[in-house]
Amino acid sequence: MAKLRIATCQFAISGNIRRNATQIKRQIAQAKKQRAQVVHLPEAALSGYAGVDVESWDGYDWDTLRRETEAICDLAAKSKVWVILGSAHPLSGRHKPHNCLYVINADGQIVDRYDKCFCTGADLKHYSPGDHLVTLDIHGVRCGLLICYDLRFPELYRAYRKQGVECLFDSFYNARATGPGIHTIIMRPTLQAHAATNYFWISANNASGHYQSWQSVFIRPDGVIARSLKRNQAGVMVNTVDTDLALYDASKPYRDRAMKGNLHSGTLVKDARSRDRQGL
Predict the structure, then answer these.
(1) Rounded CA gap, 58 and 238, in Å?
(2) DSSP for residue 176
């Protein structure tokens, strides 16, 4: 059993890499002061979000992105914290980049990278989809990663559950909207449902550029939102994953068998009246 202190961060992401980097470094420092062990940043936090902050990749300053990524790695090592960094990962030739989360350990090394598997139709104009999940142990807690539109596919959450994941880092960019909309209504409840049905802790952050459709949240495995940040404001909140806590888990008795295809509880009976579905 283990504990993990996570800093869930949000800020108004822009197309200016250096400005984004300044915000990220400031929030890493804030997280360190609050004794966080992991700093979790939103989707496209460093690179800016293509199609919104970045009109196209033509002429994009990849050199500056690389330098600022290296500087953030150096700061992670200096601060002795892990960093989950939303960015863009360039590919070869004319292939579009990945919308990614770099996993930077407390020694400042990029130890893995999650690439957004499910890109929206608009995303696919700018990004290449990923093809893999990422699991890793951080201070004894089994962790996984997803990005934004991945939320719509419960198969990904089940796949992580099958791999023994206890805590999920979910990064979003539902910002710069014209006002409240469907995301304001459904995103947090959907995350709560994923947490409760899979018994995950979830750190879910969202870029805070006005209008921020929903504010960043930290969700317990019973589906309860433990804490949230203020909408449309930069912020850092530190919460603790505690795998010793025994929280409400309604599906626990039957979850594993359901994942194996046994879609019922108890023992089935052989009875003619049970088989006859048209009679009284």
Answers:
(1) 38
(2) S
Q: Are 238 and 3 in contact (CB under 8 A)?
A: no
Residues near 25 by beta carbon (within 8 Å), at least 6 away in sequence: 71, 72, 75
- Bin 48: left if φ > 0, else alpha if -120 < ψ < 50, else beta: left
Q: How far apart are CA 219 and CA 93, in angstroms?
A: 40
Domain 3-247 has CATH 3.60.110.10: yes
Mean pLDDT in residue range 38-67 = 98
> Do residues 231 and 212 make contact, with C-beta atoms less than 8 angstroms apart?
yes
Nearest to 251 by CA among 242, 239, 261, 259: 259
* pLDDT tens sequence across 151-179: 999 999 999 999 999 999 999 999 999 99
pLDDT tens, residue by residue, 219-249:
999 999 999 999 999 999 999 999 999 999 9
Hey, how many other C-beta atoms are within 10 angstroms of the C-beta on 228?
17
Using DSSP's 3-state secondary structure scheme, residue 103 falls into: strand
Strands 201-206 vs 217-219: parallel, antiparallel or unpaired = antiparallel
Helix, strand and coil percent figures for the chain, each rounded to 5:
30, 25, 45
What does the DSSP assignment read for 181-233?
-HHHHHHHHHHHHHHHHHT-EEEEEE--PSSPSS--EEE-TTS-EEEEPPTTS
User: How many helices (H) and strands (E) in the chain?
Assistant: 6, 12
**pLDDT tens digits, 95-154:** 999 999 999 999 999 999 999 999 999 999 999 999 999 999 999 999 999 999 999 999
pLDDT of residue 1: 76
Residue 10 scores a pLDDT above 90: yes
